[in-house]
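Look over this entry.
=====
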Amino acid sequence: MSLTAENAAQQIHIKLKDVQRLIHQIDEERRRSEGNINSLTRAQQSNLPPSKLKSLYKSCLQDAVVEEATIRNALEKIQEIRNIRNERRIQARNAGNKEAIRRGALMKMVQISAQTLPLFVSKPGEKVPPLCGAIPAESNYIAKVGDNVAALVKGVEDEENWILAEVVQFLQRQNKYDVIDIDEEQKDRHVLSKRKVIPLPLMRANPETDGHALFPKETIVMALYPQTTCFYKAIIHKLPQSATEDYEVLFEDSSYTNGYAEPLPVAQRYVIAYKPTKKSGSSGGGSGSVSSA
């Protein structure tokens, strides 16, 4: 069912009010939990009986559970808003109303998309899902319309390059993707076999709780070179230490004596498993050096 601009605006308005309410609720719960934690601290210093300490511990734990649930609820509302806006954008594009985006604005959008990617924080014993951090998609996974992917396309002299693209549709009978180059200067459409399309992460992995869902140091990967829309072969130099940090990667560059350039930051969203190309052999982006996409 098509979502009209008026309906979309109404839904977003309602959900924004929900987010505002939840933020106030989180603030209230945090103040209450801080009071209980202070009481627990004083009780520990007063050498109260274990039974009373146990009761205070239970209260603090319950506070944390409620606060976590409220925060997760707010994040779900924010994601719903993003989904509505994305649906309207896709509808506008399909109707031929796609607005041209300047190069600088496009690069900013690419950066913001990575920074605002939902953060997965696992609960005790919870398994990290596919497409979170370095965890790949399942073999039968089909990327949704509007999702960003890495797509292997032919460039100059039939050399293959991995580019940042957006899914237009999945052609079920052909088992192929119809994708469009994210670069407004290109606007190229490509119909590619499923093996030439790699879905990008849908969530960031939290280094503090799910470090195992990140690529280990010195792993060979493909990463989006900063201020371009092309993926190139790189090596993980440093892992993010917090939820807001990026990887530091070493891009392959033959102009350096060791074959790799100085470390550069790349967000989790744009670091994926390495796949060699037919023409380049060893270079994920089709070239040993990096140029603007």
Notes: Residues 5-99 form one domain.
